[in-house]
Amino acid sequence: MLTDRYKDLNWNDALLPPERIAPFPKADDRAAWEGLLPETRERWVALAERYLNYDWPAMKAEDYRAYWTTGELNTRTRATFERRSVLGMLAVAECIEGRGRFLDQVINGIFVHCEETTWVPPLHRLHADKTSKECMPDKTDHIVELVTCATADLLLWIRYTMGTRLDAVSIRICRRIADEVRERLLVPYMNKDDYWWMGFQPGERVNNWNPWCNSSALMGFLLLEDDPDRRSEAIRKIMRSLDVFIRTYPADGCCDEGPGYWAPSGGGLFVALELLQGATNGAIDVFGEPLIRDIGAYIYKAHIHDRYFVNFADGDAMPLIGGDVMYRYGKRIGDERMMNLGASLREGEPVVHSWFGMYARLQALFHERERDERHASAPYVRDAWLPVSQVMTARTAEGSKEGLFLAAKGGHNKESHNHNDVGSFTVFIDGCPLFVDLGTEEYKAQTFGPDRFELWYLQSRYHNLPTVRGVLQHEGGEYRARDAVYAADGAASALAIDIADAYPEESGIASWQRTFKLERAGVPHIEIVDRYVLQEATSDIYYSLMTPCEPIPAADGTYRFEYAPGRYAVLAFDRAHLRPIVEPIHTMESRLQRNWGERMYRLALHEREAAASGTRKLRIFRQEDMK
């Protein structure tokens, strides 16, 4: 898309020099910084005041080695992210206040990061060399990967916003930032074509790493590279790599990593395209392309309510997606629904121990007033169908969180960050979770190792799926749904798929048609119907339902779920054939608890008698709709 369209571009005429790259005001523009919303200024300054006497945590060799000895990542990761988020908060507060109160700590933080032996975490080093047994970092470990790119993003925009103030202390500060970013990011970017995420090697499938790394590299070349020929060569390479990512995307715009990864994937692509457009005064502009528009629109199609999105794969149900990137993306493509979703979602406060995207934070600050003045609510799209990815969403009524919400997916089990979840579904009621996709726990060595699918929360039995003869779905592109049929109108929305091929042969499944339906007419309800044919009869079949709501048996044989205080959902099923067993989940750790709280249950509906075929139906209601 980019390379072909702009192969004849005159770069000398089109590309602005580094000193004219100005996506937001510098700290010396006091009117702009003092024009931020008063409550925002106060909040950022108060956050930074906590760190006026901050002791920057040490990066210990033993924590780096722990990946090889125990598979543990969190100790080093926490220190890495804590340093970066604290530096970002201090820098933003200094730009807002402009009095020099935070300047010394900003300079301390800059040198702390520049003195790190490597910006590359051990897990990402193994992405570049899967056979490496070396457990110690080295000052030559310069690899273009996510933490390197995030660190460059942070330092580059501190240099951009605060350059004159840093130079007033010493010209060596900004020079040091430039030297480190060149050595650790820009030089290896140009010297290597075999980073897997670039997409230049046969057989490599790229994911969110591609726009994430490319957008950070683009920032570096735009701001630091003075030689016009080297600069244009680098940007052409970035565009070639971005083209690979764009070609990887399905025609329906679905992010197969789930909404939790949309921010660095679809959102990361937007940042790269935004930078290219701005750096060329609009000479490069592909925001009118249908695929680029659909990559953006996906995010509101996957939105449920507030911070909840239809999660699958390793994504979180409440991902840390700021509304600003959605708003800016929607504005560029002229999509009012996307702009409204972005305007409705407040930017969360920066969290210590998490990524700190300086470019994203600065953009959000200077668009906040515009988003606030929109007074928008989320679009709450009634129906969405992504036919290539086989993802559907449906809700009772357009424009409202009230009522029933259903999402279902077909697809295959080689999606990026895959869980074995072909045919699973999600149900929310009045914007509250009922039957859910758990997501994942904190990453560790096993998460990306050969025994990844031994992790319980990745397995099909801990998704809303059937298990036959104890056989689970298998990972791999050949394990997929087929024969998808979708239909929607004002009365109902439905998807039917056959999920038999998602299971290995030893399951004995000949066919398994699963139909998902949200019925709006009459008493609104959701219906999940399984029609199966097995090669041999068995009673060893059960249907898992994952819920954060305690299942309460009722006298009429149904189950009640209190999804909000005093408000109940009802699950009806064929109790003549299905025997319910409630299993509390006691293995929830920090990341799952952040999304769902401390409780989770699996309601398993077991077949009572052996059968070679059958039809089983689940029906889900709001209790108040049944009156």
Automatic annotation (TrEMBL):
Localization in the cell: Cell envelope
InterPro entries reported in the protein's UniProt record: Chondroitin_lyas, Hepar_II_III_C
Coiled-coil ranges (or none): none
Gene Ontology terms, MF aspect: lyase activity
GO CC, any one term: cell envelope
Pfam families in alphabetical order: Hepar_II_III_C
Superkingdom field: Bacteria
Domain Heparinase II/III-like C-terminal: 408-538
Name used for this protein in its record: Heparinase II/III-like C-terminal domain-containing protein
